[in-house]
Amino acid sequence: MSDRRSTFLRLLPVLIFVAIVGFFAMALRSGDPSLVPSTMIGKPVPEGVFPAIEGLERNGKPEPGFTSKELAKGHVSVVNYWASWCAPCIEEHPLLEKLKSMVSDVDIYGVNYKDRPDAARRFIGRFGNPFTAVGTDAQGRAAIDWGVYGTPETFVVDGKGRIVYKHVGPISDESLKTKLLPAIEKARRAS
Length: 191
Description:
The protein is α/β, with parallel strands linked by helices. Helix content is 41%, strand content 19%.
């Protein structure tokens, strides 16, 4: 075997690795994650149970979890995936409080994602509880069914229990006004 061919064969894995890293670097820099399409739009919410966060209380009573069946009771709902370890979730939390005050007829459900109960309780205690009910997805299994890429993610669900909108990343004032509220209004008209 020639020295040139031998050198090429030894460098081939390195060249392949560099090419793959280059493709990943380009993918990470390109685009807005909120524009990632969801295959769940127009489909019923996945069946599931979101157990209550252990020890979480409101006004001295245990805060309930919820099931997917509660999202198909005739009125629009918002489902927000969040975690205490998620910095963008902290950034968006005041906007969930604002949303709650703007749409009193819409239930907001929180799903605490891959978190410890004590950390989730501290988060709610520190930043407030805008949720009608707060469940947990400790293993992340339900997130897979919902098509969640990471936290935070927010879904608008119509009264029939169909996902009509998905927002990837933290809600901003701008996205609240131009995306989330119009999606809620559209879902109201459809319901």
